[in-house]
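ugh finaly. both done.
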Amino acid sequence: MKPLIVALSFHQFFEGFALGGCISQAQFKTLSATIMSCFFALTTPLGVAIGAGVASIFNPYSPGALITEGILDSLSAGILVYMALVDLIAADFLGNKMRCNFRLQIICYCFLFLGAGLMSSLAIWA
């Protein structure tokens, strides 16, 4: 349980910085920013409490649990791939600097596929 708490704490810390920056740039009203910040601050502890309560009665090897885990894992992976390709990588690869330089395109695509391959190889240890 301790490694999970440490991982969640680091994730929430950096996510909080990112969310704070986005809220600041969007220039929401003070009340809206406060509500969003409070909601963000309360959802993870609430999720951890629910998870700790369910863990005592949960059978992770039941057919229903395995099917549910597989569906949720595939949805998460699909969303991650979509966000990476559409929101992050497309912005870099569709810029004028990239379109005007064929050599740069080839190099960037090679490194993109190399990085994807290396990240995929992490599944061996996961």
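ok and the 2nd:
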Amino acid sequence: MAPKGKAGTKGKKQIFEENRETLRFYLRIMLGASAIYAVVNLVIFYSAASAWTWVAFVFSLVVYGTSYRSMNSMAKPSFTDDGSLADGGIDLNMEQGMAEHLKDVILLTAIVQVLSCFSLYVWYFWLLAPGRALYLLWVNILGPWFTAESSPAAQEPNEKKQRRQERRQMKRF
């Protein structure tokens, strides 16, 4: 059963602490996945490593770097002159925020990177990220924009039709 009343809000200090923990957690994921990939593909199977192995490794490092840097700048706290916390930054753990999508990209890249130790074809699963981005673009921006009514003048005939239908229904009863 859902709790009654207003949902609790987080304080600046709590957001600051949770953001720090979230950034640590995702840094560990990135370092762990990269270490596994490097050890397996670039150390153990160095003789079988192709240029695509290196390209995939550099690609994952670029994705990790940009995602982590974006999350870090979003969570950047601000302090007052006396050193007390003025703002904890944007909450990285809030739902439906940009940070949620960045965390999804980091997790997808880490999963694909580790699984690609078995086959480089696993990198095709990374195409899920731009596919999801296109889906969100369509659902949230393009779809409503294309299907929106063009002008208020177009609504008048609809209102007239609605009145006619109401009158017809009144006559039937």
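summary for the 2nd one i guess: The two ends are 44 Å apart (CA to CA).
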